[in-house]
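Recap slide: ABC transporter substrate-binding protein, sequence and predicted structure.
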Amino acid sequence: MFKQFKASVLVVAAFTACTLTGAAWAQDIKPRLIRFGYGLNDDSVQGRAARHLAQEVEKLSGGKMKMKTFGSASLGSDEQMQGALVGGAQEMMVGSTAPLAGMVKDFGIFDLPFLFESEKEADAVLDGQLGTRLLGKLEPKGLVGLVYWENGFRNMTNSKKPIVRAEDMQGIKLRVMQNQIALGVFNQLGANAVPMPFSELFTALETRTVDGQENPVTTIQSSKFYEVQPYLTLTRHVYTPWVVMASKKWWDTLTPDEQKVIRQAAANSRDFERKDSRADSTKAMGVLEKEGMKINTPSAEEIARMREKVKPVVDKYTQELGPDLVRELNDEIKKARG
Ligand code: TK8
């Protein structure tokens, strides 16, 4: 009796396996090779999430679609990869919204400082109406925006002194991401802002071409900035996300089933990446302390003063981005804050 039961379970299991594989075969999926580029090194949140994405693509396509990942900007900086995707020379990438603002100016809203207070708020806005609409604006420019990954709240590091007050930024040559708003914000705070692609940053810090930079603690750790930057100030001044994108030229050659695989894999990678990023933030702080970085957190009053100080720049770019868009963003954040 038991034996017979076991046998029938086996038969059912075998049948299910057959129909499932049968379904996968019935799908219109051809062998494909996808090149996926990113800027951080293999041993970073981006690296882990890229590998996860590659596994998902392979799994969901029944092994037909293969993704090869290229870290450390080996396919180029964010900006160069954006161009390669538009031209159809590269299939996929992940990069920051800041350089994307050169193509779709609206992405500049994420460079406005002191907007989000928590990751939860960021998730709600990015995955909600506003974030989705912005992704849609990439298509006419030749990019298919799929999902947002977390980069995280950005903090300042430098080789000169702890930033206790806004005035301490005076005279610090600070690398910023490549757009007008980032440049304007940090110059207004008193720094001497220098826009530069991330791929050139470590060397620039090492050779003292610049004194400082700003990035989330996960990146400060994985890119080993602590080796050349003794001071870390936890300002959490901005939350700029990463966007996973595909070349529109390439995307249009995919069958609907193949596009579905990529969309689903991207959604799965987003959930994996955000979880990993949040766990890694805590771990990274531990490493940075152990590595001897001098870490300080400015008081709430000092952060309020910084906020006040950048207000003219925020006002200026609110006009440029469109007051309605910025209002919508602030409303969505408020809603998420509850
Ligand atoms: C990596 C960059 C990086 C970003 C920056 O290519 O440029 O500082 O934070 O993550 O996108």
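Residues 213 and 245 are 26 Å apart (CA to CA).
Residues 39-40, 78, 95-96, 151, 177, 198, 215, 219 surround D-xylonic acid (CB under 6 Å).
(End of recap.)
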